[in-house]
Amino acid sequence: MNRVVAIIPAFNEEVALGSVILRTSQYVDNIIVINDGSSDKTENVAKLAGAEIISHPKNLGKGQGLKSGFDLVESINSNSNENYDIIVTIDGDGQNNPDEIPNLISPIINGEADFVNGSRYIEGFDGDDTPGYRRIGQKVLDKATNISSGLNITDSQSGFRAFSKNTIPFFKLNDSGFGIESEMLSDAAEAGIKIVEVPITVRYDLDGSTENPITHGVGVLLKIIKDMEFRRPIIYFTIPGFIIFLIGIVSGIWLLNDYLNGIIINFGITVIVIILTILGLFLMLNGILLDSIRKLINKKL
């Protein structure tokens, strides 16, 4: 019989958290709530609902919340007989439906996957009620995540997921904020973990977030792009470098043609062309070198 534990990161979620815990408890053996520096009654609500609690003295971000939860599960699995086979992550704001947990963990129980991503956007599933402005941002983040990870995920920012206990050591959990969703997908892809997606529903009428969605989306996107520097140096360095190098070469040919036709060449433009050519070449070679180093490190690991 598989033992299941749920991890719920929570920051000022006193309104919905109690219901989430009680509904989730029907499908799991234990619930760990990470009270991430909440200023409301989140911790008291979690205690009354019967959850195990980890409290951060201040708000550290969702990524740190998940890290605290995963660290506790790993510690329990290593030091006690209460071994948890499956970890479910679910948001504490009530947007996710705990009744979908059996569907979420089914692929792991059946040996079909070790990482199950709940998706609002699986083709043919009528569960996408995402507001239009959010969907545009989601598509951008999905595309960036897929480029960075080499996956084909339809909902990279989903926080409703299930994991086999065997996956825990492969997650670096470096990102402290909401970029953690994309980071975990990239870590799993890099480790060769089998990932599948299952359809989920989301209630947007319960959205209690106070963060500007544009600011949030841009922040996550910048973190994904930064992550490409290490995971996809060819894309991050070599391709832009090639474009810059090509611009420099074409411009150089154009200047040379002017010179051969007796036209006086502007010194400033000539310097810019030389800089572009050298910079492009440097970026291309840098990307190739870093990619070789990355492959060598991964091979040794």
TrEMBL record:
Name of the protein this chain belongs to: Undecaprenyl-phosphate 4-deoxy-4-formamido-L-arabinose transferase
InterPro entries: Glyco_trans_2-like, Glycosyltransferase_2, Nucleotide-diphossugar_trans
Transmembrane domains' residue ranges: 234-257, 263-290
Keyword Glycosyltransferase part of the UniProt annotation: yes
EC nos: 2.4.2.53
Domain Glycosyltransferase 2-like: 6-165
Species: bioreactor metagenome
Molecular function via GO: undecaprenyl-phosphate 4-deoxy-4-formamido-L-arabinose transferase activity
Keywords (A to Z) from UniProt: Glycosyltransferase, Membrane, Transferase, Transmembrane, Transmembrane helix
